[in-house]
Structure formats: C-alpha cells, structure tokens
Amino acid sequence: MTIKELEQQIIDEFANFDEWLDKYAYLIDLGKECPQIDEKDKTEANLIKGCQSRVWLSCEQRDGRLYFRADSDAVITRGIITLLIRVFDGQMPQDIIDADLAFIDAIGLKEHLSPTRSNGLTSMVKQMKMYALAYKLKG
Description:
By secondary structure, the protein is mainly α. The protein is built from 6 helices and 2 strands, in the order H-H-E-E-H-H-H-H.
C-alpha cells in the first residue's frame, strides 16, 4: 500500500469514534501492536530527542525499503509511534521524505495532544524522515 492509502485507512478508522476519549483508547490499543525494538537497540543513540517520554526507534533497510521498530515508556506515545510506523514501514526512503502526513491533522491528533506530546510527535516524524534521508544518501 502507498503512504496515502495507509493514511486514508487510518483516517477511516478514527472516523468510527465520536469522542476523543475513545480515540485515546484506540491509540493505546494500537500501541500494543507496536513492532517491538530489540532490547539491545534500546540505547541512548536510538532515543528520540524532544519527546517527554522515552521513545526508542530503530530502522533498517532491506531491498531498498525501510523498516522501523520502536518502543516507549508511555502508552499513548507508543500508540502514536505505532501509527507512524504503520504509515512508513516498508516504504522507499524518498516516499517517506516526501510524505506530508495529512492524516495527523485529518484525525485531529495534533490538536488533542498536550504541547509536549505534540512536540514529541514532531520529533518522531523528524527522526523517521532523517533515517529516510540517511538511507537515501547512502544509496
């Protein structure tokens, strides 16, 4: 699936909930499906800077595509990184770099997060795009 198709899938899923409390509960449930980072990769180097909670993110390239794994010590944050992984996992570096991630605004995520969580979301996206750029430059 393309990034746009995956984003639309997420928008459709979140449209099933009227209340933000239900959306938070869904985010927490999504976090339980997070592709888990290996314990050995829970290092300072893999910590995302700018997040209030601790978020570890690793990335590897296989056959030109990027694959992410993560974990967080906060359940909502784990749900957020799971959404981002769902959109970016298995995609080409240039597609990740070019993605505008309109689904974030479409589901109202940023406006319903605390300022510190919103900054954390921005930091997660930035780190994933930095991985994509690094792998693209590697060739």
